[in-house]
Amino acid sequence: MSGASEKPGVLNGFEETVKDFWVSRPRRPHAGRKVAGVAAAIGQRYGLDPVVVRIALVVTTVFGGFGVPFYLLGWLFLPGESDEVSGFESLIGRGRSSVSPAFAVVLVVLTVVSAGGSVTGSWFDGGGLISCALVAAALYLLHRSRGHENRPAPVTARKSSPAFTGNGAFTMTETAEAPSPARGWDPLAADPAGWDLPDAPPAPDPRPTPPRPSFQAPQRRHRSKVGSATFALAVVTAGAGVLAALNGAGWFSAQHVVGLVLGVVGIGLVAGAFAGGGRGLIGLAVPLAIAGMVLTSAPFHDIDLRGGLGDLRETPQAVGDLKPVYQHAAGDIRLDLTELPEGAPYSTTVSNGAGDTTVVVPANADVTYDCHTGAGEASCFGHSSDGVSQPALTGTDTGADGAGGQKITLKVSNSVGNVEVRRG
Asked: For residue range 23-65, what is the model confidence (pLDDT) as tens digits?
């Protein structure tokens, strides 16, 4: 008993299903792809509409953030339709793939950055673990029930074998053809065609031969690896900077990350000027320079990458639940302070990179506020400003009942987006 299933198309156990999935992985087709063909590959392999797969990836990206690293993993580990192996296997020397080693390194870095952000909870509030588990379970169930259908044919490397010729030398051919019985038997085991003598050379032409022009075909220029190496290093630098920012390193703002990447590209351009190549980096340097100038000019000077992405909703019920700082990179923030009990004075700071921020305070609280947005509208207790680089709105509002209520100190700032502070 080998443990295999007696019913055709049914796999026994988790280990057998996982091994069979790897052996018969979906192959990314050339036709029907939108980016890399990951969704089309899964759809063709398991008989699904690729649109359904794409919608599922979008949903897992919005709720949890794992859709992006899953797509990158598929790009990295699913071989192309005519490839021997996947891009990652080609990177470690297992075979040939249409994914170049330099681009495979880029995919590895992007996968680590996106997966690290979604699973550790820096992005999308930690829902990446849930979406990762759901994607893995869906793939497992699909392969367990439909893995026997639409199995892709493996693409194997063409092997060379030695063939013996009549002149006693070995040559490498795709296959060594066996001698045909119709040619007869040769006791010396030589190819009968090898004994045929060549025909006599033709008589020379008495007419003078015109001199041949001394034209030489231009040699193909050696392709430099400076561009690919610089691009890969720039992606690694950007990924490391974003991870550092998400983990609390305050220096790694958007402006500094762009500046570091632009510096790497500049070094690559200088190296390419001496070694030859790297001209394609100009197309990367120009938009980076423009982005750097925009980010370093008002009102984008204080954009911070820390805090995660997506909408944030907070309603603290006790003073201990109130955080001293609510920080977000992009998305809407709504902080409701009306459920907090009265007592000692408390304060908090709300910082948002891009998106709308709303803070709701109790009706009778005495609020000292500082509201500012780099580009957008700020509205705090009836005072408002609109535009770019407007001064902050500051002051104290005691509410309709006058002074004597709960003391609250608020500082709300946005880089881009609207800010509103109002009473509940």
From this structure: 888 999 988 888 888 989 998 888 888 888 888 888 777 666 6
8 A C-beta contact, residue 72 and residue 118: no
Residue span of the structural domain in which 409 resides:
312-423
Statement to judge: residues 21 and 127 lie in one domain: yes
Nearest to 148 by CA among 248, 283, 12, 55: 12
Does residue 256 lie in a domain region?
A: yes
Q: Which SS3 state, helix, strand or coil, does residue 42 take? A: helix
Domain count, the chain: 3
Can you give the pTM of this predicted structure? 0.41
On whether residue 211 sits in a domain, the answer given is: no
Show which of 272, 296, 320 is a domain's final residue: 296
Structure tokens at 226: 């400076």
Long-range contacts of 379-382 (CB under 8 A, 24+ apart): 379/418, 379/419, 379/420, 379/421, 379/422, 380/412, 380/419, 380/420, 380/421, 381/421, 381/422, 381/423
Coil, helix or strand for 373?
strand
- Per the DSSP assignment, residues forming a β-bridge with 10 are none
